[in-house]
UniProtKB/TrEMBL annotation:
Reaction catalyzed: L-isoleucine + 2-oxoglutarate = (S)-3-methyl-2-oxopentanoate + L-glutamate; L-leucine + 2-oxoglutarate = 4-methyl-2-oxopentanoate + L-glutamate; L-valine + 2-oxoglutarate = 3-methyl-2-oxobutanoate + L-glutamate
Species whose genome carries this gene: Consotaella salsifontis
Cofactors named for this entry: pyridoxal 5'-phosphate
GO molecular function: L-isoleucine-2-oxoglutarate transaminase activity; L-leucine-2-oxoglutarate transaminase activity; L-valine-2-oxoglutarate transaminase activity
Source domain of life: Bacteria
Pfam families: Aminotran_4 (PF01063)
Protein name according to UniProt: Branched-chain-amino-acid aminotransferase
Pathway(s): Amino-acid biosynthesis; L-valine biosynthesis; L-valine from pyruvate: step 4/4; Amino-acid biosynthesis; L-isoleucine biosynthesis; L-isoleucine from 2-oxobutanoate: step 4/4; Amino-acid biosynthesis; L-leucine biosynthesis; L-leucine from 3-methyl-2-oxobutanoate: step 4/4
GO BP term, example: isoleucine biosynthetic process
Primary role: Acts on leucine, isoleucine and valine.
InterPro entries: Aminotrans_IV, Aminotrans_IV_CS, Aminotransferase-like, B_amino_transI, BCAT-like_C, BCAT-like_N, BCAT_family, Class-IV_PLP-Dep_Aminotrnsfr
Length: 300
């Protein structure tokens, strides 16, 4: 657990266009986003003072809001500028960036046509994992989740919407209670989908396999890792993967802004041995997120 609760950290938060002291960035208990999950958010990482794929995250935030039926009242340029300015003010080079948009308190009921759309951005320090590749190669253990990723006909399943995380927290808590690090979720059809906050990849015979992102978040890290693999001449198949296939794969890893590339050693009864493909993708991703100037300076 974080030794200091998140509402007690220091610095500033960007709140509806103003930089306010961290402890003053408060909302009322009668906030629609809290009661009805009318909230969307992003998770971004800064490496060496640069937010990786900032514009892609900002565009996804705006698109997630639209999927919930609201327009965030700031342009992508304004949101990017706010993130960059806040990162400077917070004084971190390696950090986590959390924009969140939500419906306010003007109406309290399922209908919230006239509620203000709020946007806040918080940034906290997140030291980089450079150098810990060997430790991560041990792999983490995943349980099988009870809940499934929903049919796109039952929820805006590709948005980064707060409501979709209800089953993620339930599944992650259940897995942790059994001593696992996380849980792998199937989708509504019973196909392999993703972990509770990261996408999933497998490898066998030099080929990478990953579920098609047709009912869950098409992670920006996922897209980056697919591109990096293909640039290296590695075949990547995006396809339906059935749980019965899991034993046929030799390697497995998760991808996500927070997870980066995290090797997996177990999913329920299935075993994997993190090997060359995990290592190659971890190294490629680390090189990709590292600002080129910082890389050049570090080499001097
Ligand atoms: C449910 C879920 N899937 C996948 C991802 C990976 O997305 P990204 O690589 O854009 O961080 C995340 C993390 O944001 C997530 O919460």
């Amino acid at each position: 657990m974080n030794s200091v609760p998140f509402d007690q950290l220091d610095g500033q938060i960007w709140f509806n266009g103003e930089f306010v002291p961290w402890k003053d960035a408060k909302i009322h208990v009668l906030t629609h986003g809290l009661h009805y999950a009318s909230a969307v958010f992003e998770g971004e990482k800064a490496y060496g003072g640069r937010i990786f794929e900032l514009r892609a995250h900002t565009e996804r935030l705006i698109a997630s809001g639209r999927a919930l039926g609201f327009q965030i009242p700031y342009s992508a340029d304004e949101i990017d500028e706010a993130c960059n300015e806040l990162l400077k003010r917070q004084g971190f080079t390696d950090a986590y960036v959390r924009p969140v948009a939500w419906r306010g308190s003007e109406m309290m009921g399922v209908s919230a046509q006239h509620n203000r759309i709020n946007l806040a951005i918080a940034i906290w320090e997140w030291p980089s994992y450079y150098g810990s590749i060997e430790q991560r190669m041990k792999g983490i253990r995943l349980d099988m989740a009870e809940y499934r990723r929903p049919d796109p006909k039952t929820a805006p399943s590709r948005a980064k919407a707060a409501g979709l995380y209800m089953i993620c927290t339930i599944s992650k808590h259940a897995a942790e209670a059994k001593g696992y690090s996380d849980a792998m979720m199937l989708d509504w059809r019973g196909r392999v989908a993703e972990a509770t906050s990261a996408n999933i990849f497998f490898a066998k015979d030099g080929v990478i396999h990953t579920p098609e992102a047709d009912c869950f978040l098409n992670g920006i890290t996922r897209q980056t890792v697919i591109r990096l693999a293909r640039e290296r001449g590695i075949e990547v198949q995006e396809r339906a993967i059935l749980p019965e296939e899991l034993d046929s794969f030799t390697e497995c890893w998760l991808t996500g802004t927070a997870a980066e590339v995290t090797p997996v050693s177990e999913i329920g009864p299935h075993r994997f041995t993190p090997g060359e493909m995990c290592r190659k993708m971890m190294e490629a991703y680390t090189a990709e997120v590292t600002p080129k100037l910082a890389t050049a300076e570090a080499a001097e």
